Amino acid sequence: MKPGPSRLLCLSSCSASRAAGFDSATDEDEDDECADEEEERVVVVQGDEDDEDADGAFGSSLFPERWDVLGLGQAMVDFSGMVDDEFLEKLELEKGTRKVVNHEERGRVLRAMDGCSYKAAAGGSLSNSLVALARLGSTPGGGPLLNVAMAGSVGSDPLGGFYRAKLLRANVHFLSAPIKDGTTGTVIVLTTPDAQRTMLSYQGTSSTLDYDSSLASMLSNTNILVVEGYLFELPNTIKAITKACEEARQSGVLVAITASDVSCIEKHYDDFWEIVGNYADIVFANSDEARALCHFASKESPISATRYLSHFVPLVSVTDGSRGSYIGVKGEAIYIPPSPCIPVDTSGAGDAYASGIMYGILRGISDLKGMGALAARVAATVVGQQGTRLRVQDAVELAEHFAAHFDSSTIQSNIGSDHISSF
């Protein structure tokens, strides 16, 4: 149903000592959660395959009876550092490009970064949305606490332990056990003084995604399943995505798909529409991604793409940068004006917007215009800061704003496909 056509370098002794002392991503992750830098270092150094405490975290007794949102996505640790042009030239890297590298190349770059100032974070578009949602849902005054989780693939190496620990500290549970002898995927982001970013992606175990009985049982007790579009780009993930969506549909779970990237959609167009056309209740996309899903030319307006997609998907969310956004339902598109802000960093704006939409759905908002305004406000908050993560204090203020501006007349208590299709 579609509308048209070796382990992490082991971090060598030199690199291991560097990794043990890297700067954690405090400005966009844990600075407002009393993060202890020494504790971060312990996680990285000791989070290995024999860590019984880490493995114990996968016991179902520690999990809630039901998840509000379960994300299925690519688990990658981001290394972000400032370098000069000479650094790129020395490593023969083309500035401003994105390149997939093997573990030898990754090791070479990380060793070259030894001595540079860089940060590490539990990265990824989906994790940005989940962390924002968890923080919005952690304010007692804004309604019942939200239980948020993610499933994906990390290795049994120190970086895998770091990834799980960072998400858990942000109240997002990582449900998947580490892959024995696997290496956690990473993205190295090198920024030069002219603000150009050169990105090196190492897939590691993130390209392996298994749908097992444990994940199936958790999914059956979930309100919303969010599938990250980047997974479509990885080998052998389509079967796992299909099984997860089938289980979600049978269990009455809402299925949300993030478009993620235009090139990903173009390369895997049929796979996207196999899932979107048969299972999706919600699609998150920016204007370019929406056009790609529709096979529209660049001259087509985002409102046209939103309307078109809404014939196939009950609820469509399309962002258009500083021009605002659209929510599509039953062939119609509702325009959402942008929330005022002074732009600082646009990275993560779409991820934040998606968290606002899901928050509105989980809180039972039936007013789509109000839901979109809430999402736009969350996105503007992230755009007005440095970094991709919604900060805790900002999340508290946004949740309080929600509680104050939406009364019981605009809120419904039932969450499910019927609720979405009724819009």
TrEMBL record:
Classification via CDD domains: adenosine_kinase
Region (Disordered), start-end ranges: 17-40
Compositional bias annotation for Acidic residues: 25-40
Superkingdom in the source lineage: Eukaryota
Key word Heme present: no
Stretches that traverse the bilayer: none
Domain Carbohydrate kinase PfkB: 118-390
Keyword terms of this UniProt record: Kinase, Transferase
Molecular functions (GO terms): kinase activity
Keyword S-adenosyl-L-methionine: no
SUPFAM superfamilies per the UniProt record, alphabetical: Ribokinase-like
Gene3D superfamilies to which the protein is assigned, alphabetical: 3.40.1190.20
InterPro entries associated with the record: Carb_kinase_PfkB-like (IPR052700), Carboh/pur_kinase_PfkB_CS (IPR002173), PfkB_dom (IPR011611), Ribo/fructo_kinase (IPR002139), Ribokinase-like (IPR029056)
One Pfam family, short name: PfkB
Family: Belongs to the carbohydrate kinase PfkB family.
Protein name per the record: Carbohydrate kinase PfkB domain-containing protein
Natural source organism: Rhamnella rubrinervis
Lineage summary: Eukaryota, Viridiplantae, Streptophyta, Embryophyta, Tracheophyta
